[in-house]
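The instructor's notes for this session suggest beginning with a concrete chain rather than abstract definitions. Hand out the sequence below and ask the class to guess, before any prediction is shown, which regions might be ordered.
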Amino acid sequence: MTREEIMRIYRQHVEAELAHDSRAAASTYVEDSYYHHMPTGLMFRGREAVAMQYAMSYVSFPDQTFDIEGEVVQDDVLVHWATLRGTVKGPFLGLPPTGRRVALPFVARICFSDGAMAGETLWYDMLSLCDQAGYAPEAVRAAAEQARVRLAA
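After discussion, reveal the predicted structure:
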């Protein structure tokens, strides 16, 4: 894919995310795509699971937005770094909402294939999220483990 093709798909994807449209965001992925959430170990496989991941995020942080601070494209990979901002107004991994605001720096690597996003891998500091959101790290680890078991079933 050319850099221009990658950037067109990427911009379409970012626009859908900022509009909190999980279906439109997932539509930029290939059918057998993935979304790997490194801090929790959660892996969502397939476009439907990717859409579900976005929808759950919009429930947890209904006012979420992010500011992209930089991006780089090399071959069929785009990496961007940004800060997610939002309020924990809904459950996060099944934990109750805290009403606390977060400003969480993150990095995402997006791989492209066959004219769409093949998958995305997300990194951020889990302890910073826990501190800002008001969750005990042990509670988040346990909730993530339960979610991994449910996804594997």
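Then share the key points. The chain has a mean pLDDT of 96. DSSP finds five helices and six strands in the chain.
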